[in-house]
Amino acid sequence: MPVVKAASGVFARSRRRLSASSSVTWNRCSRDWFLTRRMGMQVPAHPEMILGHVIEEGVIRLLMHRIPNDPSIADIDALSVWLLKMVTKATEEAMADLRKRWKNHIWTAEERDIEEIDDERVSTMLENGVKMQIEVAKQCLQAGGGPHLEAFRRDGDPFGTPAPCWDEQPANPGEPAGRTAGDGWAAAGEPCTLWEAWEIARPWMKDPRVDAAQRLYHPERWAAGELDVAHRWSGNVEIVDIKANKGKYKNLSGVATQLRFYQWLWYCTRTHEGRTPSRVEEGAVTALKSWHMADAFLHEADLIPADELDAEGKKLRELHQKMTAAGISDLCLDADSPSEDGLLPCPHCHGHSTCDYPRAGAGEHPMHSLLSDTSGMNPVGPPFAPIGELPSRVNIRGRLHGHWGPLPNHFGEGVCGAAVTAGEKTAVIEEMGVGLHPNISDSNGDVVISGAAPGQWRGMVRFYLDSRSEIFSADDAGDLEVTRLGLVPTRANVAGMVVSRGATSGVGVNGRQWSMSIAHIWDGTGLVEVVAFGRGRSESFDALRVGNEIRLVAAELGWREGIAQLRIDPRNTRLTVESKPPSEAS
Predict the structure, then answer these.
(1) Are 41 and 328 in contact (CB under 8 A)?
(2) DSSP string for residues in 514-529
(3) What is the mean pLDDT of the segment spanning 20-37?
(4) Is the N or the C terminus of the chain less surrounded, counting Cβ atoms within 10 Å?
(5) Reported CATH class of domain 392-487
């Protein structure tokens, strides 16, 4: 959709930010949401999961072509022939992309293979995407080019975030596109041509040439969305989501929820300061559609009535606040209405402290199939601590001084902080994210800080503060029990089984490349995320597989979204793999 400049820091990496897919997951199973969204657990990739991304991009790449301004392409039939000729090459490119993504995926579903997807299946989906957009161009031609015809003729694409086109430069989020009319446009007052109708009807789509996130952020940054397609040629907006599956006879209630979220987000971001202004009025959202590429099925969801959009925002804000406050202990059991065996009465989830909803495809229960194996693990004694007993929040006392900020932290976001000293020990305190504890700068002298999250960064002890943290004057703290600065643990030794693997990389808002490798470790008492950034991604860490039993010594304690996280320090952390997964051990 027409986008704004990518958010940085906590807003770019937030796992609690509300999105269309996270709300669908929460409504289906809040425990699944916590594990996969808040804690970042992965599921094994299956071919259909990768196919969805490849088909979406493949369709977009085809629609980005500008048809020749050639008299031989004089009607819709000729246009269809010309466009469909490109599907053969697009299919080859999509198949190569599928195989590359599958090969590079760190965890794939057992007994599945990318070769299950053949050329004919991919070609059919790409053809259907082209045919559905041709129908839109046909409607535009029949409507005489729509209300923006003369604006296109004068100066080219008049929208602040223009439709991507191979013959035009990409437009980065929040930056002027610099489009001009160029060749091919008819004189003012002339009837709309087929060439013009194709250009005008081309929707905004996620430009594959742009590295930055192409999404809308709520003005208060607690919600964001990145949809696939927005048609704007008619003077109003039709939001479309591309699906690499069949739509006919399916329950599409989840898709409808997703589309209505995009409608609401579009509504509340029209005056966003980060948007590049358009030369024409985009209009209101008047249709919500999903295109299902496997059977060319067009699904249209009901709109949120215009007079209910503000109420929808309040409801979504309440949902976000519930997500923000959620902890795993809140989601394990429902004390008010437990089932006979004491489990949360959920139609999908049957685990005591995890979710076994088969998100990775029929028969795949990535957590419970592995957690049962931990019963045979040998208990590990000192110096290894149970994950369920990892250091959590602490209360500390000291003298606050040396205030600073906002200055960039290690995530590049501007946060405020200070030094705290007790005796001969000094540590740093800082906000866990932008605006999470603005009262740091208001406090001085002898204080007691409650609910501080202990950690370490580059060898220095740090305490991270968020909305759960408070700063009292020493007199107001009363007899609150505190931990001495020198006794606060900031490293951890853990042993357990790898139950999830993932890796990701990208380009930050500062233009620098970044990468991280992720493993979730379970020891029967608790679950913790372990991350390795950049140089910390050793060969042994990247080689970890689900089912490995491992031991970690001197991992740095860190925090993300109020949840403890272990980080690999390439200079001090030691990793030992005790056993291979059962599938490899034989």
Answers:
(1) no
(2) EEEEEEEEE-SS-EEE
(3) 84
(4) C
(5) mainly beta
